[in-house]
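Subject: complex prediction, re-run

Hi both,

The earlier run crashed halfway through, so I resubmitted it with identical inputs.
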Amino acid sequence: MKMTPKELKEKHEPKRPVALNCLKAFLIGGSICLVGQFISVFYMTFFDFTEKTVGNPTVATLVIITMLLTGFGFYEPLGQFAGAGTAVPVTGFANAVISASIEHRPEGFVLGVGMNMLRLAGPVIVYGVFASFILALIKTVWNIIFT
Amino acid sequence: MTDHAIISFQKQPALTASGVVGGNDEHEGPLQAIFDHTYDDLWLGKSSFEQAQSQMVIDAINYTLEKSALTKTDIDYIVSGDLINQITPTTFGVKQFNKAFLGLYSACATVTESLIVGALLYNMNEQARIVCGASSHFATAERQFRFPTEYGGQIPPTAQRTVTGAGYALLKNQAKGPKITQAVIGRVVDIGETDPFHMGAAMAPAAVDTISRYFKANGDDPNSFDYIVTGDLGRIGSQIAYDDLLQEGVKLDREKFLDCGKLIFNESQNFQAGGSGAGCPAVVMLGYFLPLLTQKKVKKVMLVATGALQSSLSVQQKLSIPAIAHAIVLEVKESA
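This time it finished cleanly. Structure:
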């Protein structure tokens, strides 16, 4: 019987190693979070930070590390290996901003870097802010009605 | 009805020399010996990747001229294109030659399209000397069609890696050497594939359409060809096309059906399904298969470059990926 191009495609497509990808993502993503935890403990031990205030300097440190890894070309192969493991933590967000900035440097600082820095990360910010707004609205209404 | 888009050239131009340059990944691949020059990095000392690609165009044309013992004043036309918006890498490259220029776009099928147009120009005037070819650059294609180079997103196993390379060849009147005898002009084929990380699946049906049209029209034996070479279907697309061709009644030995995207990289380089880009068929067809013909190691080859004709906008608009395949037949005569 004749197979359609779509059927032939399914026949020859390699199966994606979902379980292995999940394991890699868990290990690498978990390691990034572990590093983050070490940084937090470091700041709380040696500086005047509490568990509530240590979030910002920790994120900033991870972003700086990602910037260096991206700039020196290490993050892209790591991302290919780890998948969601490097995409989900804050380092993935940082990589999206930094890689776009590097990419558009030849078009100048204003029209290149400035305009394109948030090319990939922009939607995350837009829908992140929008989702927070909706949730805050629901919470406010909830509080008015039930308290 | 006769298919008039299958052309038998009355005057058959010889492909006398080719110039082929590539990047570092291509140098590390199995075909490193075909390159006249490979560059150590993607920048070539330029301030943008697009300018680097223009330099590759200039270098590949210069190698073509050098090997033909010609200078740039001796050529009449340049027929070429690339993948980037408004084909600026090509125009910025060819402007320094100051010759009549036809710019083409058939995505990765540009190299065979340029050879077809070159052969048609030759049929207008047998004295014409025509430089044909195409180029692509990993980083320029990546930034236009996909993500920034250093973005760490995971690429699926069906994806292909854009080849950094430029391949050009000279068409002229010469008794000796491989000649373009026939051509098939492709149709736009769209099977509704929407995954831009699976170009091989979108392009395979176009290759099948072009190849089966050829054999239906003239009843040739597919095995009279030493090779039928597709452009950049990759490992998966090539397999799809081979199976589909069998269904269409084109019975061909598996080892005679090759794909430039499969040949250019080693599997150990981890470039998923293989190479792609306009430079991929340009460097492999003109750098590897053309010399095989010139040295008479093979006599008859069909080159079928395939192109995926989407833009980044059409993909974002969720449109399917149309594809095209242009073919040429290269033959070297016993007596020549």
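Chain B has two domains: 10-172, 179-331.

- K.
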